[in-house]
Amino acid sequence: MKQRISVFIFLTFIYSTYVSACECSSQGAFLSVAPNSKLVALVKVSRFLSFKEIDRIKTPMSMEVEVIKIYKGHESRKKVIVWGDNGMLCRPYLSQFDTKQYYVIAFEKGNTGRGNAGEMETDYAISICGDYWLKADFKKKMASGRVSEDRQSIRLSDIKAKLETK
């Protein structure tokens, strides 16, 4: 009987780990996925706000970003909170982002109750199921990354028009 209970607990653990892990395939390059987002903006990472230890590494869970320019959608706040992956969500680990660095990001709304502890619906998240962000060089006015299937860079001034034609 004890052996059956042990097997049941083990299988339950394996199943719950499998179910809670993120599984998604890429939905495409930035110009394919960004038009479906509610907010696309040029932002500057100000600071990391909260952390969690994942695999013995202090990993940022949330970051504050300064909204520099909006290409799609509406946001009246100058600074917003962005949440990353906690090991079970289809989001990037925020350690991929650097403070004082600029990015063009296609955001998702925050997910109260199904995201991170402390996450609010007024916050934002980033999907990892496609290329939802580009690294931006503010001085050169360029963004780079997987912009489209055949482009690795785009002028910041061209992003809004490209989003409107999709």
Outline:
The protein is built from three helices and eight strands, in the order ααββββββββα.
Structure description:
Helix content is 19%, strand content 39%. It is α+β, with helices and mostly antiparallel strands and 166 residues long. The chain has one domain (24-164): OB fold (Dihydrolipoamide Acetyltransferase, E2P) (Beta Barrel). Strand 1 (39-54) and strand 2 (57-72) form a beta hairpin. The radius of gyration is 18 Å and the shape is globular. Residues 6-19 have low confidence and may be disordered.
Helical content stands at: 10-25%
Using the 3D structure, state the CATH architecture.
Answer: Beta Barrel
Beta fraction: 35-45%
**CATH topology name:** OB fold (Dihydrolipoamide Acetyltransferase, E2P)
In CATH's first tier, which class applies? Mainly Beta
The neighbouring-strand order within the major sheet is: 1-2-3-5-4
Rg: 18 Å
Number of discrete helical segments: 3
- Would you tell me the structural class of the helices and strands? alpha+beta
- What's the main sheet like? 5 strands, mixed, barrel
- Total number of strands: 8
Shape: globular
